[in-house]
Specification:
Layout lengths: L1 E5 L3 H13 L4 E6 L10 E4 L1 H10 L1 H8 L3 E3 L2 E5 L2 E5 L4 E5 H15 L2 E4 L6 H7 L2 E4 L6 H5 L1 H4 L1 E15 L6 E8 L2 E11 L8 E9 H6 L7 H11 L1 H4 L12 E8 L3 E2 L2 E3 L14 H18 L3 H31 L9 H9 L7 H7 L1 H10 L13 E3 L2 E3 L3 E3 L26 H12 L4 E8 L16 H17 L4 E7 L10 H4 L12 E2 L14 E2 L2 H21 L3 E6 L4 H6 L14 H18 L5 E7 L10 H13 L4 E5 L17 H11 L3 E3 L6 H9 L5 E4 L1 H5 L3 H8 L35
Length: about 775
């Protein structure tokens, strides 16, 4: 096998070494355009997991690296002159030049042909003359560009500028320092990579980062490498104490996230930054490249032929990379929006920073450094022995005993309330026994607040024939039965109603028969701000509401709110999300009106605010009222981050007690960035920019995530949907799992005997001796 590796970075060199070690008969050549010791940056951080893989794959490389590594456990966070330290993290780093030198030596020892200071032949020539071409040529990969039509790369440039520098002394911890200047916020990320000793004073990598507009306002865009290093050294006195910084062909650049639809084409395969990038704030670039190299070499060795090997390599690595990229994106965006968090109390700020990527959580940070977490909880007023999720929260005139909300989930199971089979749309939408048991079970399950599904304000405002409503006396009486059960059988649990109108997404089948698909018969007309169907050629073209018709819809909302108050609900939520009627007024993708109800965000807000005001006027003042919004449309040309802040601020100014922050479902062509807790950064931004209470939603699935979000100050309440379908007693079980038995999660008297997890069959019993 003839192998060409394009790029002499750590990933390319390690791949070359492993491929040659596993089969010495292979001819392996590395093409590197630069000199052997030319490299960007200074230090490289590797995890214990990655080091374990290196040790298993090539003990010689591992032994050489072991002699070079600097190890430490602490993270220091400097904020407004105060340093907070969290321990137990475990890092290992070494100089990038030393890493390359170790890999150069190993490649030469194995017989790899290293060619420096020469460009690789064109990719198509390499592919024709070799059995395997490994493109490890970095974020600006020429190999990837040559076959862009196959790899289909997507490159996203982000909002911060950063520069790699170094300090000639060794820090004793990973260090973050925040500089709040007249121009805005800048941040320092720093760590040691060479300890002080006989050969010198040691060294540390120092990365300085700032939003593009801050970078320009501070004049850093006009400085050369020396001037930038000099200016940056003055910004961070706690870490640098007047000591200078130096560069290495250092430039201010914007981070670019690289994603490829495919990683291989014929016998050409992408590796490391050529295939994917992840932000440096989670220390992942070299780690991912080295892990790629290990997986590629293993798959080539294990699989029967090259196509199978490259397919197995991508199948193995893609999920790991996507998970890392999601975490890196969370970390990157946290630093982009850092200015919204700097006003937090110091310990909460430090906890927020440490948990920013969602890979470090409340629970595992408590294992690493229990004293640090105890200090954060004490500063936040969390009673000793109480998980943050079981602290009370006041929402308007309503006090919730804990921070868990059963999210509104459509059940599509309404009954027909007409007598003698005289069914029609005017008598449909009655909640029945299913709703009593469904909502009652979740109320008994311990959540602080249980929300109904979206309850429709009119027959034509239904999504499906199975949707519940609140436009008739029969519906009001049926909902009264549900609230009465909750208040009687689960005292202390609040129940809320979510009022909405389907708009252009109405007159469709129930979810399990075909979500968003039109009914085969019996359709009713749908309405919207503009005559734009949800899906062209599939869904109805909606009628564009006139001013008179909007006034009628507004009164329908108010009438339903009156019925909700009489039915005994504790909280009312106005549904302005997910592409339903009020949401479709807010989004520029669905509102193309040219009158006072369209255009800029003020016009698009007008009707939703009129509805909110009408509901707030009739909803009892002592009862809480919230609004659910979609903070992004996940589609080009949709609502902007600045507009979503304007929307949240407007509803808060008009009297909303909290903003329930969801995303998307506005247009069919959306491309959501799914992942664990993927919507919570939008709640975080609204809460910490505007200072308004928020409910976070979106794939929050564990009590550990809930505690982390609350303690970091990213949310006030957490709404969970599917976990409560899986386990109606999710909240009580979360309390049991955390050995909590306080007032935030009381078990119903009928269920107290089951408040401890049942024992399971033993799997660790002593085995009998069967041989001498």
């Amino acid at each position: 096998m003839r192998v060409a590796v394009v790029g002499g970075g750590p990933g390319g060199l390690y791949a070359a070494a492993l491929l040659k070690r596993l089969d010495p008969s292979r001819s392996v050549t590395v093409h590197e355009r630069n000199a052997p010791d030319d490299t960007f940056g200074f230090g490289v951080v590797l995890s214990d997991e990655t080091l374990g893989g290196i040790e298993h794959a090539d003990p010689a490389v591992y032994a050489a690296l072991q002699r070079e590594f600097v190890r430490w456990d602490d993270i220091d966070i400097v904020h407004r002159g105060r340093t907070l330290t969290s321990g137990g993290h475990g890092f290992a780093a070494l100089g990038r030049r030393r890493l390359l030198a170790v890999l150069h030596d190993r490649c030469r020892e194995l017989g790899v042909d290293l060619r420096f200071r020469s460009e690789a032949p064109p990719p198509d020539e390499l592919a024709a003359s070799h059995d395997l071409v490994v493109a490890a040529d970095g974020v600006h990969s020429t190999t990837r560009d040559a076959f862009a039509g196959v790899f289909r790369p997507q490159v996203t440039t982000h909002r911060c500028r950063y520069i790699w520098l170094a300090a000639d002394f060794a820090l004793d911890a990973f260090r973050f320092e925040i500089a709040e200047t007249e121009h805005g916020v800048l941040q320092l990320h720093a760590y040691p990579y060479e300890m002080a000793g006989e050969v010198g004073p040691g060294a540390s990598t120092v990365i300085v980062e700032a939003r593009e507009e801050v970078w320009r306002a501070a004049g850093l865009d006009k400085l050369d490498e020396h001037g930038s290093a000099e200016q940056c050294a003055k910004l961070f006195p706690e870490t640098l104490a007047g000591r200078p910084l130096r560069g290495n062909n250092s430039q201010w650049i914007a981070f670019r996230t690289v994603v490829n639809e495919r990683w291989s084409h014929g016998n050409v395969v992408l590796l490391g930054d050529a295939a994917h990038t992840a932000h440096f704030s989670i220390g992942s670039g070299t780690k991912l490249a080295v892990e790629d190299a290990l997986a590629l070499a293993a798959c080539v060795e294990e699989q029967p032929d090259l196509p199978a090997a490259l397919a197995a390599y991508e199948e193995e690595r893609r999920p790991v990379v996507l998970s890392t990229q999601r975490a890196a994106r969370g970390s990157l965006e946290w630093f982009e929006d850092l200015a919204t968090c700097t006003g937090q109390p110091p310990r909460q700020f430090a906890f927020n920073l440490l948990t920013r990527s969602r890979r470090v959580t409340h629970d595992n940070l408590r294992l690493r450094d229990p004293g640090f977490v105890a200090g954060v909880e004490a500063e936040a007023g969390v009673p000793e022995g109480t998980p943050p999720m079981f602290t009370p929260f006041r929402l308007g005139g309503l006090t919730l005993r804990n921070r868990i909300v059963v999210s509104a989930m459509d059940m599509y199971s309404a009954e027909d309330g007409a007598p003698d089979g005289a069914a029609d749309a005017g008598t449909s939408g009655v909640p029945g026994d299913f709703h009593l048991v469904h909502l009652g079970a979740r109320a008994l399950g311990g959540a602080g607040l249980v929300m109904t599904e979206m309850v429709c304000v009119s027959p034509d405002g239904r999504i499906t024939p199975g949707c519940t409503g609140l436009w008739s006396p029969e519906q009001e009486a049926a909902w009264s039965r549900v609230t009465r059960f909750v208040h009687t059988q689960s005292p202390g649990t609040a129940i809320g109603v979510q009022l909405g109108h389907s708009g252009r997404k109405g007159s469709t089948k129930v979810m399990w028969e075909g979500i968003d698909e039109p009914l085969p018969e019996g359709n009713w007309p749908v309405v919207a701000p503009s005559p734009l169907p949800y899906r062209e050629g599939v869904n109805q073209v909606p009628h564009a509401l006139t001013a008179v018709e909007m006034a009628a819809v507004r009164e329908e909302f108010a009438d339903s709110a009156r019925r909700a108050a009489r039915a005994g609900f504790d909280l009312l939520e106005l549904h302005c999300a997910h592409g339903y009627l009020l949401s479709s007024f807010l989004s520029p993708l669905t509102n193309r009106r040219t009158d006072a109800y369209g255009g800029g965000i003020e016009g698009r807000l007008r009707f939703p605010l009129e509805v909110f005001d009408a509901v707030r006027e009739v909803w009892p003042r002592e009862r809480a009222m919230t609004v659910r919004v979609s903070a992004t449309d996940w589609a080009e040309g949709g609502i902007t981050p600045e507009e979503s802040l304007r929307v949240a601020a407007a509803f808060s100014d008009h009297g909303a007690d909290a903003i329930d922050v969801s995303t998307g479902q506005v247009v069919a062509e959306e491309r959501p960035d799914f992942g664990r807790s993927y919507q919570t950064p939008y709640a975080d931004r609204i809460r910490n920019t505007l200072g308004v209470p928020v409910i976070a939603v979106g794939a929050i699935s564990s009590w550990d995530d809930v505690n982390s979000l609350l303690l970091a100050g990213r949310a006030d309440l957490c709404a969970l949907g599917r976990p409560h379908l899986y386990d109606p007693h999710w909240t009580l079980h979360a309390a049991a799992d955390q050995d909590y038995a306080g007032p935030g999660a009381p078990w119903p008297v009928q269920y107290r005997a089951g408040s401890r997890k049942p024992p399971t069959g033993r799997t660790d019993a002593p085995k009998p001796r069967l041989t001498l």
